[in-house]
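INFO  loader      accepted 1 record
INFO  loader      residues=101
INFO  predictor   begin
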Amino acid sequence: MKKNILITLFSVPLLLASEPSGKEVFEKYCWGCHHQHSEAFGPSFSEIASKRTNEEIQAYILDPESMYKAFGYKRTVMTKLKLTDKERESITEYILSYKGK
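INFO  predictor   done
INFO  writer      dumping tokens
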């Protein structure tokens, strides 16, 4: 019984620590095309945050090919990223943190 409690106590912090921050997701998947304040290949996070809601950003991440016309773009070159729900939520929060900057 004590062994199970100890395993549980040590496992919980490991599970929590494995969830990526928005900055980590950005550095892994987004930095090649997006920067925080300046336009790169894609729009900056501050531009995206000033125009889009949480739901719109997540929808675009989930399926950019079906969303680009709704956003007023002539085409999209953004690839469909295979992010977990938590990664998608983290990067969306990170993008929105640049609203008004």
